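lol ok so funny story. i was supposed to be doing the assay writeup but got distracted and ended up predicting the structure for this chain instead. priorities right. anyway since i did it might as well share w the group, maybe its usefull for someone
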Amino acid sequence: MVDSHCHLADDAFVEDLPAVIERAKGAGLTNALCILAAGNAVEAERAVLVRRLWPGVRTAIGVHPHQAGEFAGREQQAVELVEAQLAGDSESRAVGEIGLDYHYDFAPKDTQRRVFRAQVQLARRLDLPIIIHTREAEADTLAILKEEGDGSVRGVLHCFTGTRMLAEQALALGLHISFAGIVTFPKAAELRELAPVVPENRLLCETDSPYLAPTPYRGKRNEPAWVVRVAEELATLRQAPPPELQARIASNFAALFRP
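and the output, tada:
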């Protein structure tokens, strides 16, 4: 089993990181992808400890849309920062998380688009997959992905909560779709209906920990061990044997991120 998206270098895990990792291993996890914010020296330092405790962890590095405003008018510096950090991290496997978030007003939309586009271009040049965050920005996200790759960009829509249209067009572009704890929420009816639609070879699951704990842990700090609960729910929705689905997800993770 794998957790394809978590934030183990986050402040939330400082006090008990070894125990969190032991619980993940005890739950059967072999690998995880730890997301790092480009330019965050504290997270980069913590990632070294994470990998020391759990050699199966790999990293992804990018400028999140919430931080895009820091690079207004100097998008190339964002690219240079990400590229330098990727080059200095032998365990890095992806550019991300990157994308567009129009729900919050943390960065101007035009700046978000330019920073996102520049990082997609970087990923293409480095032949790395991208990890996409998109919220209330489906049309612009798809437009940039089509303009900057149209099927040649590998990657995943992480913590998917979008529409059927977004799922179908993302799959047509060759992207993976990853489900997080939200798919276990009984009221997430539309998302639960989409879970069986994703082809088996494009399916991933994640915790996005420390956020979005699945039921029955809602309201608590999320952690990688609980990705098993997400996978169990996906197996139920897809009417698939849980061990087989977990093995398939792990295989998809390995094919995309080459851990």
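The chain has one domain: 2-257. The mean pLDDT is 97.
back to the writeup now i swear
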